[in-house]
From TrEMBL:
Source species taxonomy: Bacteria, Bacillati, Actinomycetota, Actinomycetes, Kitasatosporales
Protein name, as recorded: PP2C family protein-serine/threonine phosphatase
Organism name: Streptomyces chrestomyceticus
Domain PPM-type phosphatase residues, every copy: 126-338
Transmembrane portions of the chain: 46-68, 80-97
Record key words, sorted: Hydrolase, Membrane, Signal, Transmembrane, Transmembrane helix
Family matches, as PROSITE patterns: PROKAR_LIPOPROTEIN (PS51257)
First and last residue of the signal peptide: 1-21
Biased composition (Low complexity): 366-380
Region Disordered, annotated ranges: 342-380
EC code(s) of this entry: 3.1.3.16
Amino acid sequence: MREVRQGALLLLTAVAGAAVAACDLALGPDVSLAGLLLVGPLVAATRLEGACTAVVSFTALILGVAVAGREHTLARTDQLLSLTVLAAAAAYATWASDRQAALDSQLAGVAAAAQRAILRPTSFRVSGASVCARYRSAAPRAVIGGDLYAFADTPSGLRVLIGDVRGKGLEAVRLSAAAIGHFRDCAYTRSNLAEVAEEVDRRLIDDLGPEDFITAVIAEISPGRLRLVNCGHHPPLHLPAAGPPVLLTPSEPTTPIGLLPLPRVQEVELAPGDRLLLYTDGLAEARDPDGTMLDLAGLLPACSLPDLNDAIEAVLSTMCRHTHGAQDDDVALVLVELEPSMPRQHHVRTPPAITRTSAEPPGGPRKPAGRPSPSAAVSD
């Protein structure tokens, strides 16, 4: 997208320069429009990289000299002065563009280091489980945004947070960092999972604005058992070692963090080799150019790859193919596997339709408050 914008601006400056040169020739030698050729280099210096700015500047100077040569006015003092100013402006525009590009690169490096200190891709083993997490920002030159994940290895088991802050930009990054910090503290000091969510909500009151909230899922993984609290977030996808994938939709949806949630703990049995995929809007609501949402059941082959790192990268690749490379929202993914006694089989057959947990009420799950359900993207 950035290359397209730069190409369009290059074309625009070329057309504008040619138009100025044509008008100058049409008006004759008594009128000089060489000063108007300054516009191209100056605009390029604010929008284009150094090499592109140099091309625009050199083209403007060549046009000025060509017009003066055509009209036989190169020896005139006013024309020489105009061309000298044009050359100086072209040189300055190229230098300024190079300097700004170098400064942007330095700032981008500092920002990336600061953001990775808050949230970074990770892969580890703990408490009988393997974990892999990835983050892909939708914003150019950004490492993270409003999505978040965090982990805490507690006596109750591995606790995982995944969430999505309402809004974007630096404010969303600030709220993400605050939520991660509070979760890491509460995960060790609260024994009940619902209390963890409620305490994080209480601590975030001073950080959240009147319209801010964070949808979140907090999972607790221990041998043979998964506990969940869902605060208005997309339900995790349970991928049994043997059996169809299951959306773990809560029977009693609650409000997001920041809106006084009262979550209930949901319990699910886990078997060795089972996997759990936690995700945010960027995956659940990924659409192709026709507006069709990604079918979560289609992620089964990707999620079944033996290596978790390969599996989570395959999920991102599947999403990218579905959207044809477009990404409108940040994506955070956490893939967890209970360490199996035997290597996991890679599914190559057509994935089955996603089923739902038996805890769901008759007639299907209700939507979590304030968030669209990913059930629209999967077959019943």
